[in-house]
Amino acid sequence: MKIKKVLVSQPKPTSEKSPYYDIAEKYGVKIDFRPFIKVESLSAKEFRQQKVSILDHTAVIFTSRHAIDHFFGLCAELRVTIPETMKYFCTSETIALYIQKYVQYRKRKVFFGATGKFADLLPSIIKHNTEKYLVPMSDVHNDEIRNALDAKKIQHTEVVMYRTVSNDFTPEESFDYDMLLFFSPAGINSLMKNFPEFDQQEIAIGCFGPATAKAVKDAGLRLDLEAPTVEAPSMTAALDMFIRERNKD
């Protein structure tokens, strides 16, 4: 079956130069953007149940912009004033610059890694090994950061500040796609929650990353496209190749 309509389970690109728009024009397909999941903050009450005092810490480790939004949002809700001496350690420069949304950016108190991987931020943390680190996290996370900090005997506290939940479909929303693209296991969980009787038939499913690929298969679905690969390092490159092959006469 030819691909005519694709659903990308991510927010609509902010730039008109997105490769998705190029693909839509190139092959005459319709591409919709609709996240299957959304991130919401814990309530102040839920946060307090973890019995963590933010001001007992002298530094914060941020791994995403979500973490920054929910950290400062909860601080405001809890009426916690962050001292200017607080240090911020971010896994990438993009995340570090995002802090400017909430506090004045000073190079002496903001540190970041070069690649976005926590391992590249770790040397900066070790250099400041007398700090007491707070690590805001999602309700779903792995133990990479905790294990790395424990191994170096760094004082730290992990605390859940936000959660990933299903972004439910309304009865008015049509769901008539030839292809679905997913980027996290939570997206697959949301698909099955929203459509418990989902019958894949000819609908192609593509995903990004091995964890999402596993979730597709664990749900008993057929995986038609997996990225990244050597030939297609991005989802858009993989999608371009897939549609070209599927829609050829």
Automatic annotation (TrEMBL):
<feature type="domain" description="Tetrapyrrole biosynthesis uroporphyrinogen III synthase">
    <location>
        <begin position="24"/>
        <end position="236"/>
    </location>
</feature>
<dbReference type="InterPro" id="IPR036108">
    <property type="entry name" value="4pyrrol_syn_uPrphyn_synt_sf"/>
</dbReference>
<dbReference type="GO" id="GO:0006780">
    <property type="term" value="P:uroporphyrinogen III biosynthetic process"/>
</dbReference>
<dbReference type="GO" id="GO:0004852">
    <property type="term" value="F:uroporphyrinogen-III synthase activity"/>
</dbReference>
<dbReference type="GO" id="GO:0005829">
    <property type="term" value="C:cytosol"/>
</dbReference>
<dbReference type="InterPro" id="IPR003754">
    <property type="entry name" value="4pyrrol_synth_uPrphyn_synth"/>
</dbReference>
<dbReference type="InterPro" id="IPR039793">
    <property type="entry name" value="UROS/Hem4"/>
</dbReference>
<protein>
    <recommendedName>
        <fullName>Tetrapyrrole biosynthesis uroporphyrinogen III synthase domain-containing protein</fullName>
    </recommendedName>
</protein>
<dbReference type="Pfam" id="PF02602">
    <property type="entry name" value="HEM4"/>
</dbReference>
